[in-house]
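Box 3.1 A note on notation
Throughout this textbook, protein chains are presented in two layers. The first layer is the amino acid sequence; the second is a token string describing backbone geometry. Keep the layers aligned when reading.
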Amino acid sequence: MDSDDNQGAFLSPARDARTMERNHLVLLACASLAASSLLLIAAVVNQERPLEVAPGKVDGVEVGTLVAVEGVVAEGGIRRLDGCALVTLVGAGGGSARAFLAFDPDDLGPGDTVRVVGTVQLYKGSVEVLVPSEGELEVISKEPRPWASLEELVGEPWRYWTVQPRTCVTVASTPVPAGPEGGCWCVVRSGDAGPSVAAFLPGGMDAAGWEEGARLELCVRVRHDADRGLVYLEVVGWTGTRDA
């Protein structure tokens, strides 16, 4: 065997050691990456998912529960505070919920349809949803839901066929069942001397707050039968007003 072969044979144990060390480091790195990936996957899988709740049902949810609430911002339902805001959301099934935004929402107005994710909390005896950051507020739609008086809805119903206007009314009669098809009817008026009109609450909508004399804010579809001269309101959502 020549000298070069002897030298190669002499150095091979060191080379083997270095190779083993490199392989060991590679294995450690792979194991570390695998562990991190497993932890990330576990965090995603175990991430708390919010409970989907209608605005009118938030009061019945346990304090501390993470919830997602979708509704329409009520007229006069944005109270801006120092760098934050208190927002009232009207539900499609009736009722409302208060959302405390721990930030000042830039582009938010009455009639906007939004979805918030936050924790149910009790503040001075009132239930509200604490929304910690802008990432938990989603503006779903800014389609116009124009504000109109009851006089305007009754006097020119054709103007409101393609929109869902909002209006304030006083309940003039206790709701009565509509029949086998479900839902109920009642009469609402704009004020002591204003016009009265029939309002239909679809089946499944909460009518618990519709006692005679209650002041409500409604989101409605205006139904108009020109041949019969008949106008009535189909209620899409509602909440009590601050002067109720």
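Residues 150-240 form a domain with the OB fold (Dihydrolipoamide Acetyltransferase, E2P) fold (CATH 2.40.50.140). The mean pLDDT is 80.
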